[in-house]
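Appendix B, Record 12. Input sequence as logged:
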Amino acid sequence: MDLFQKCKEFTAAREVMAKGLYPFFNPISSGADTEVIINGKKIIMIGSNNYLGLTSHPRVKLAAIEAIERYGSGCTGSRYLNGTLDIHEELERRLANFMKKEAALVFSTGFQTNLGTISSLVGRKDYMITDRSDHASIVDGCRLSFGRMSKFKHNDMADLERVLASCEKESGRMIIVDGVFSMEGDIANLPEIVKLAAKHDTRVMVDDAHAIGVLGEGGRGTAEHFGVEDQVDLVMGTFSKSFASIGGFIAGKEEVIHYIKHFARALIFSASMPPSAVATCLAALDIIETEPERRTRLWKITRRMQEEYKNMGFEIGPTQTPIIPIHVGDDMKCFQFWKMLFDEGIFTNPIISPAVSPGSQLLRTSYTATHTDTQMDKVLDVFQRVGKKMGVI
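Logged structural output:
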């Protein structure tokens, strides 16, 4: 069979396009903010991960401009060879201090951070124990390693203990979980996870992409939120959410970070973060550390929206964060709901199978500290009208 035959036979996306319901790859012609311009039309954005609203912050933008003027547009090489700037190392020192870990290492993307960390640490006889709802980058990192991956039911601690008990005791083991799960918006049961990890002599890695800047009094994420920072071995974070940039990092003990630095193929064989992205992260970190009122505002919006959606009759599941899913339960219905909202000036993200299991299709909404009350009023009004027309409420 021709290798490309599968491409010819893939018609699902074109069928949705033909119906005028295709929701993906919409080109935005403005900055990432609470409102964006698509096809010349202003739309309220409730589909981004810009949790603290820093993409348009004057200090953040100025930092990027000044970095380009000083360092140029790119590094043209990997961190391992010619691509390490002094500001890469400054960012790593700042992140280690912020996360209360011995060391940190930055990668060019968050996805590469998980790929590089997991595949370099986990060997052929080792186990990776993952939540069934973990992010795709964790799954792919596990696939790239030579270890054995065992999954436990989502946030089910009894099933986690069953899996841990089944691992060979002489093998290395690491539990890898999302801190905040990116589709449902719920939080990992980290207090119980670290207890089970200690009982079974297992390391713990937390992907805090959607938690850093959002959870915890200081914005350090899930472990700070639960008061178990000293019981988590590795914390991964991304720069494409609260940090308003691109890239990722891993933080932990110095000897572990040193090892990853010399064995992570995703780091060694990728070009390093460009100067503008690094400078943006440093400026964003300054703001995260000095402006806690942004988190306060984000949580005020989050609690309001969660309560209003529930009062209208929407099913939002177990969310505990600014990620609020609106459950719909069917691919085509999800696309139709998205299009009606889009036409009314609201941008959401339709999530269909296989990203979620069949019957669990949803519209993923997420919120930003700089959203105004007027914008949220409009969002709620549109959702109520469209939800009734669609028969969702």
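The mean pLDDT is 96.
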